[in-house]
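Retro notes
What went well: the complex prediction finally ran end to end.
Inputs used:
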Amino acid sequence: MSAGDLTPFPSALLLDTSFLRTLGGTHTSKYQTFIEYVTKEGVHLFLTPRVRTELTEQQAYMSIDWVDKARTTDWIEETGEFQPGVRVHDGPRAGDIFDSAHRKIAEREQVDPDKLRKTDASLPATAVMLLGSREFDRVGIALDDNHAQESINSVLRNTYYEGRIAVLNIWDVLAYMETQI
Amino acid sequence: MAHAPPDTSTEAEEKREEFFTIHELLHRPELAVFYTDLLLNSPTTIGDSVKRTGLSSSAAHNYANILQQLGAADQLNEKRDRAHLWDAKPVAGMWNGAEPIGPVMIAVYGAIELDADIELFVERHGKAKLSSAIAQTIEYLRGNTSRRGAADALGVPAVEGIAITQAIEKIVYLLKDLDPAIPADEFEVSLPDRALEDAPYTHE
């Protein structure tokens, strides 16, 4: 990840389960830094349906009920399922981005794509949908999973979405936010 | 089949000694915690280890003696602040002739009572599955799987796979270069200092 991925900081962030896990509970400095920044800068936060399903099925490993927050507060929202046909400018359609990311991850893991979870691949596809349907210049995908990050990045590279969809690692995000608040 | 004579060579006895050392360390979480702290911070004093681990002074002295008897640590002649320095050495062996066991595994099992995520994982899936989780975390660090892929391989929900690989990753980061059982030259672990704030062990 380069410094350019963080600036200008995306005005919308899709939060992955891995990111929320590492962010921890309300008492941690990581959580406080993150919330202070997104509140101050008005960054919109989003949870995809697949991430919400994961969070709901295993609350014991989560310090915060993020799904409840997405339902009851206005600073974090639930997205719908991505629309496969959506595209922005001459970028690939969301469905194609999903298929490419899913295939890429399956290749690296040497597993049958039909048996692979679809949560990782749905993140860039949903980011395309947000980019196409809302007033965001940049959309970020926030993760704590180097492997998924690399696979998603490789699919976005050399497309219209490169630079417009930023795949961000939690530690870089927090380090950047600390310099800005 | 011809009966093989017992192997009473020094080499064979050293391997057996290694087996007993590893068995003791895997069996006694507090001993594993003390050993891991000593290994990470060698040479160090028992007093400094007590400050880092929160163990009682008497327990730490007792564990130091046990480690010395097991051949896993030595009291040095040098002193720091009038206290003897101790030096621990990596212990490693093979389980079942195929599965490597070393300081990372000892540290992870020692952390069962120190790390809420590891404790919860063991409560739900048992200690044998924790060993598989260590192997899957190393696969993640080698770039061969995502965290969700690790969850699939372990047969656990995504959040559990994510949580346990995140917890074990910190321990691997701390001990990777001290563990002969880990293929350290095959991957790099890069974590910022703040990622280690809630790690079960401290490297000073």
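What we learned: The interface with chain A takes residues 117, 120, 140, 143-149, 151-152, 157-160, 162-163, 166, 191-192, 194-195, 198 of chain B (CB under 8 Å).
What to try next: split runs per interface for comparison.
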